[in-house]
């Protein structure tokens, strides 16, 4: 037994040394290594990949760059017109056209104790947000989406575990909530192209997300109904914020810049769309999430 443990320890040390040597070797050759602070290959757009490939060619390298978390080269995806698809964060079959005819004024009047608790919790959270961001709606939207993408993932995760424990179907709710989380994340990816957050706003995201994730996790365990009511009222506030965003765009206070390419492809917008068109479809998404929750 003593010899077996000793041999196992030597083997682990040897493997560790080989791993460290591999990382150092990759760094010395200028390769990107998937560690903290470095982007994964699959998160790059097609243009960025071509830039990396060109750099490798100039350096005389003849290495195939893998575009997958699993070390498997992904299949080439094209648009309907035959042009290459340049996004790895979503695929053509995940795109859609938002329903702009959805009722934006719908409001769930709080009647029960849980409804009122959810409503006033959300209202109390709005005050510090108004004070901090004022009328910087681009940064405000970015912060809002970092929080709005949490509930769907938490709810989907807990329902997933519940389905596993009980050996029963979820009735489609797991996919619905995870799709909601992914949609909110795409909102964030879009607004990141419009406004660049300052360092203290990024730090605030860490703090708010850490607190909100754990609070929502506990709330969902205690009462899923309460948790969904909170999200519903959060979405009502989001609709209000994006409506104010549109007013500032119409007044010219905020420049109505061309829509980011990622938004045009994700929502199937016309090529000449602007930031106002993006805010319109995002607001429609929030109204849909309000009704679901």
UniProtKB/TrEMBL annotation:
<dbReference type="Pfam" id="PF01786">
    <property type="entry name" value="AOX"/>
</dbReference>
<dbReference type="GO" id="GO:0046872">
    <property type="term" value="F:metal ion binding"/>
</dbReference>
<keyword id="KW-0812">Transmembrane</keyword>
<keyword id="KW-0496">Mitochondrion</keyword>
<dbReference type="GO" id="GO:0106292">
    <property type="term" value="F:superoxide-generating NADPH oxidase activity"/>
</dbReference>
<comment type="similarity">
    <text>Belongs to the alternative oxidase family.</text>
</comment>
<keyword id="KW-0472">Membrane</keyword>
<dbReference type="InterPro" id="IPR038659">
    <property type="entry name" value="AOX_sf"/>
</dbReference>
<keyword id="KW-0560">Oxidoreductase</keyword>
<protein>
    <recommendedName>
        <fullName>Ubiquinol oxidase</fullName>
        <ecNumber>1.10.3.11</ecNumber>
    </recommendedName>
</protein>
<keyword id="KW-0679">Respiratory chain</keyword>
<keyword id="KW-0809">Transit peptide</keyword>
<keyword id="KW-0408">Iron</keyword>
<dbReference type="GO" id="GO:0010230">
    <property type="term" value="P:alternative respiration"/>
</dbReference>
<dbReference type="GO" id="GO:0102721">
    <property type="term" value="F:ubiquinol:oxygen oxidoreductase activity"/>
</dbReference>
<dbReference type="InterPro" id="IPR002680">
    <property type="entry name" value="AOX"/>
</dbReference>
<keyword id="KW-1133">Transmembrane helix</keyword>
<dbReference type="GO" id="GO:0009916">
    <property type="term" value="F:alternative oxidase activity"/>
</dbReference>
<dbReference type="GO" id="GO:0005743">
    <property type="term" value="C:mitochondrial inner membrane"/>
</dbReference>
<dbReference type="GO" id="GO:0098803">
    <property type="term" value="C:respiratory chain complex"/>
</dbReference>
<comment type="subunit">
    <text>Homodimer; disulfide-linked.</text>
</comment>
<keyword id="KW-0479">Metal-binding</keyword>
<keyword id="KW-0249">Electron transport</keyword>
<keyword id="KW-0813">Transport</keyword>
<keyword id="KW-0999">Mitochondrion inner membrane</keyword>
């Amino acid at each position: 037994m003593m010899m077996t443990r000793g041999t196992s320890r030597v083997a682990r040390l040897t493997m560790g040394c080989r791993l460290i040597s591999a990382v150092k070797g990759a760094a010395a050759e200028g390769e990107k290594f998937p560690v903290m602070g470095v982007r994964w290959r699959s998160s790059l757009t097609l243009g960025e990949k071509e830039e990396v490939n060109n750099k490798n060619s100039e350096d005389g390298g003849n290495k195939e760059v893998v575009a997958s978390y699993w070390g498997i080269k992904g299949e080439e995806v094209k648009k309907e017109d035959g042009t290459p698809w340049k996004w790895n964060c979503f695929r053509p079959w995940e795109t859609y056209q938002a329903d702009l005819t959805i009722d934006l004024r719908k409001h769930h009047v709080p009647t029960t104790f849980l409804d009122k608790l959810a409503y006033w919790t959300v209202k109390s959270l709005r005050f510090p947000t108004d004070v901090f961001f004022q009328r910087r709606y681009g940064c405000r939207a970015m912060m809002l989406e970092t929080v709005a993408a949490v509930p769907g993932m938490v709810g989907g995760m807990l329902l997933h575990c519940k389905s596993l424990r009980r050996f029963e179907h979820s009735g489609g709710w797991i996919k619905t909530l995870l799709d909601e989380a992914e949609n909110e994340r795409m909102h964030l990816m879009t607004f990141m192209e419009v406004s660049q957050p300052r360092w203290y706003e990024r730090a605030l995201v860490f703090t708010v997300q850490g607190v909100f994730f754990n609070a929502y996790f506990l709330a969902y365990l205690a009462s899923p109904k309460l948790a969904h009511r909170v999200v519903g009222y959060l979405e009502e506030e989001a609709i209000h914020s994006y409506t104010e965003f549109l007013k500032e765009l119409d007044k010219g206070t905020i420049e109505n810049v061309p829509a980011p390419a990622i938004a045009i492809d994700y929502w199937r917008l016309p090529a000449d769309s602007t930031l106002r068109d993006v805010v319109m479809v995002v607001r429609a998404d929030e109204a849909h999430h309000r009704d679901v929750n």
